[in-house]
Amino acid sequence: MQNDLLKDKVIIVTGAFGGIGLAIAKACLNAGAQVLLHGRSERNLADALGYLDGGDRVEPFVGDVTRDNFATDLVEATVRRFGRINGIVNNAAYVVSSNVNDTTLALFREVLEVNSLAPFSIIQSALPHLAETKGAVVNIGSVNAYAGEPGLLAYSVSKGALMTLTRNLGDSLHRDFGIRVNQLNVGWVLTEKEQERKVGHGLPADWYTLISPMYAPARRLLDPMEVANSAVLWLSDSLGPVSGQAVELEQHPIIGRNPEKNLDALDIE
């Protein structure tokens, strides 16, 4: 879908060599932006660049978000290539199964480093540039931020921390610098990694067609590009001064839902 919502804006997208991040990068390009495309390793870089077909409007950047000086290097690379920063999408995430029994402190710290601290560091490093352009930040969160699944303990807590960061900075940075900070709490999305994960759990290759309507009333999961289109809207100037908000992208209410207790509520797992 072509539009001009981000015409001539420079957007950083982390975790963007695949999945939701790559879809967001594509949507930003379609909306007229220039994109700093970040990924952890070069393994999927060639495929990502081929899919985007963005020419000189795309600049790749490879690096681990937890390494020292990562945020500074990312920001400097963006400004060196494009001259400014209008928006940041903090999408890079560490999704790992863990529960109260097997979550070590080392694992917990690693998840928090990737999912909570790295986004803060990137925003902090980019602050002067975002202030200059009156830019926008979109943090990609999860509906797990509200409590989460027992088997996603560390991940859920990290997304809750990210949501508080969003609300806190969305207030202070908007008031002091004119920078909007918002978050998309994403529900169940059919990405290539989710497909690999579920098949790895022993589910059939077409598992996503068998999900109960209790979990997917539309009889399908969200598509990455549907998340991406929402991210573009929140990066744009279309929503005016809205800041400090966490918006759920899900098919049903997250808070207060009390579904019928019948066989349709059974999970396919």
Automatic annotation (TrEMBL):
What top-level branch of life does the organism fall under? Answer: Bacteria
- All residue ranges annotated as the Ketoreductase domain in the record: 9-180
Q: Which Gene3D superfamilies match?
A: NAD(P)-binding Rossmann-like Domain (3.40.50.720)
Which InterPro entries is this protein grouped with? Answer: KR_dom (IPR057326), NAD(P)-bd_dom_sf (IPR036291), Sc_DH/Rdtase_CS (IPR020904), SDR_fam (IPR002347)
Q: Name one Pfam family in it.
A: adh_short
Q: Which family does it belong to?
A: Belongs to the short-chain dehydrogenases/reductases (SDR) family.
Name it.
NAD(P)-dependent dehydrogenase, short-chain alcohol dehydrogenase family
> What does the organism's lineage look like at the top?
Bacteria, Pseudomonadati, Bacteroidota, Sphingobacteriia, Sphingobacteriales
